[in-house]
Design goal:
Length: 423
């Protein structure tokens, strides 16, 4: 019987005795959407920074000289906005890619494309681009029971056995997503930092980010809920996305600038794995930051979207591990498949729901990569073991333990544990 064929009610009934926390009606979780909107009239204008060796303070430490330099670039941005008839909205330093990023709103009298072209001709401008919008790749939550033993990866990936070899200890995973409930009883203590890069916060915890975090690193052996793929890993909760309503009523969205802020933070603070359970159009600024993360040996995992060309950005970016729901009819070359249907995971309000989508497939692989990083194994689109070369359904055991050399997962695991015991 396939995992999808098991009725949700039956799973819940079988697992009900192990549930330690009371559940409240799902409708209580529907919080008002945040006051954030996707403004299609906004553009980003990147002003060049001077080379590091002539900057007053190249690390943006806040010196007097550096403040003067930033103020000068702010005046330049104001000059450009006045000249073009744009509204200057916001600004953010992006020293990792050598620019200060300014948000401007374009009037209805000019197209966004024409505005970008006009501004890009200014000598102070490195480049300009539209403000892109990205969507997370998770479906709505279902049900309302903790489903500790119903994780598809528990059996398919032999998580209990793999956790005898590695749990992700010492590995930091940046979860760039909507707001995570860091106080959830299955997540409390799993975070090294919490940052919010979305305007108009703070707001209640949100479903998508909380669910992704649980798949990656929910606490193990605590008597409640689920166990994450890498329960020994520590997470950065980096909010760059916002829930537009209940999971069933509206998507979870992110934009170029919020994602860029979160990516820069993750890179600056040495995240070893970066989870991006989202997709959207190609983007110059975000591509530069993703490439920089990869150059600094971080592993970037992204959700594959079959509805977008080449799976959407950032999954299409070279070096990124692209992951889709293994139940999809076909996955192209270089895309891995991982569990993405009927996944029990953490949700706001101290609950656990069933969720679906490639967002959670990507989260599985981010957890697996954390296990590999603990063992100091390379982790790239080419190093994971799938059902076909460089892609296909993930073989978690082979990915973690390496080639079996004539031995299956069970005996390789036994050898591994026996070798550890003799040390």
């Amino acid at each position: 019987m396939s995992r999808r064929a098991i009725p949700h009610a039956l799973i819940a009934a079988l697992l009900a005795p192990c549930c330690a926390l009371p559940l409240t009606p799902a409708r209580a979780q529907q919080a008002p959407p945040p006051a954030v909107s996707a403004d299609a009239r906004q553009i980003l204008v990147m002003l060049r920074l001077p080379p590091p060796h002539i900057r007053p303070n190249s690390n943006y430490g806040g010196s007097y000289g550096d403040s003067m330099s930033r103020a000068a670039r702010r005046r330049t941005a104001q000059r450009i906005a006045r000249r073009e008839g744009f509204e200057l909205i916001d600004g953010w330093p992006m020293p990792l890619v050598g620019v200060d990023c300014y948000v401007m709103r374009v009037p209805a009298s000019i197209s966004v494309e024409a505005a970008v072209a006009r501004v890009s001709k200014d000598r102070a401008v490195a480049w300009s681009q539209p403000m892109q919008i990205y969507r997370t790749r998770g479906g709505g939550a279902q049900g309302g029971d903790p489903l500790a033993a119903a994780q598809p990866a528990t059996l398919a990936w032999r998580l209990g056995d793999l956790h005898r070899v590695a749990t992700g200890r010492g590995v930091t995973v940046a979860v760039i997503d909507s707001k995570i409930e860091t106080s959830h009883p299955d997540l409390a203590g799993q975070f090294v930092t919490t940052q919010d890069f979305v305007v108009n916060g703070p707001l209640p915890s949100e479903q998508h980010g909380t669910g992704v975090a649980g798949v990656i690193a929910a606490r193990a052996d605590n008597g409640i809920g689920i166990a994450g793929v890498a329960p020994g890993a520590r997470l950065m909760a980096l909010r760059a996305c916002w829930q537009t309503g209940s999971a069933a009523a509206g998507p979870t969205l992110c934009d170029t600038l919020s994602l860029a802020k979160a990516l820069q933070y993750a890179i600056d603070h040495n995240a070893q794995v970066i989870n991006l359970s989202l997709s959207g159009p190609p983007d110059i600024l975000l591509a530069k930051l993703v490439d920089l993360a990869l150059a600094r040996k971080a592993i970037v995992v992204a959700a594959y979207d079959p509805a977008l060309a080449r799976g959407g950005f950032p999954a299409l970016e070279a070096g990124v591990i692209a992951v889709g729901d293994e139940s999809l009819q076909s996955l192209p070359a270089l895309v891995y498949g991982a569990p993405g249907r009927d996944i029990p995971t953490t949700q706001p309000g101290g609950r656990w729901y069933l969720v679906n989508g490639s967002s959670y497939s990507a989260a599985h692989v981010s957890g697996l990569v954390a296990l590999l990083r603990e063992r100091r194994r390379a982790a790239s689109p080419q190093s994971l073991a799938g059902s076909r070369p460089h892609g296909g359904t993930i073989d978690a055991c082979a990915s973690l333990l390496g080639p079996f050399n004539g031995c299956d997962c069970s005996c390789t695991l036994a050898r591994e544990l026996g070798h550890s015991a003799r040390k």
